[in-house]
Amino acid sequence: MSVTMTGEKANPIPNLITGLRLVAGMVMFLLLATVAGGVYFVSPMTSDTDTLNSLTRLAFYAFVIAAITDFFDGYLARKMKAETSWGAILDPIADKILVCGTILGLFSLGPQPEIALPAAIILFREFAVSALREAAAGKNFKIPVSLLAKWKTTFQLVALGAQLLVQSWSAFNLDVSYLTAFNAIAFWLMWAAALITLWTGIAYFRAARKSL
What integer is the mean pLDDT of 20-49? Predict the structure, then answer.
């Protein structure tokens, strides 16, 4: 969402959906942090397994809701011709809160050595590109966005959703015999998302270097 509407007031629904993603991402992280014992004023109330499982399931549902809104806000903004400057600012912020919040939430649940490197690649790239965009805005030029970069967040959310489901496996009472296979799939999805994220980050820096 990058076009400023002039004249009549833009339809607020797309921005409200983006706001929902932002809130759902924060709620998801707080729920995972509570399960991990990081929310001290709530943790004493969540010592029983049933409550912890309920919170874990709620965190997963919040993630799914947030991930779905990533498609609908942009689609509706284009469909309703309601693309706004505010939406263009809020959309990437909501994406980064959801992605970074999920990664931090996963690591709050315990050591995740198998995904530490791809998770670090995703985090480093997101912060680096954000800094690059800020520097570019200060010099009044816009970095072109490739098609792959537009789908980058979708790849990240699929991979992180798979990792979150692995951590929620027992909370959903899923068949343990399938866990090893699904864990392997989630692992490779994470690496695929990290490599796509890294590639698009390199493309951004190349484009910025040409513009500068």
Answer: 82
Side-chain half-sphere exposure of 208, counting CA atoms within 13 A: 19
DSSP tally for the chain: helices H, then strands E:
6, 0
Contact 210, 143 (CB under 8 A): no
CB atoms within 10 A of CB 150: 11
How many other CB atoms are there within 10 angstroms of residue 86's CB atom?
Answer: 15
- Span 196-205, average pLDDT: 90
Residues 6+ apart with CB under 8 A from 152: 193, 196, 197, 200
Domain 13-211 grouped into CATH 1.20.120 = yes
pLDDT score of 4:
42
The per-residue pLDDT for range 157-197, each reduced to its tens digit, is 999 999 999 999 999 999 999 999 999 999 999 999 999 99
Q: How far apart are CA 3 and CA 157, in angstroms?
A: 25
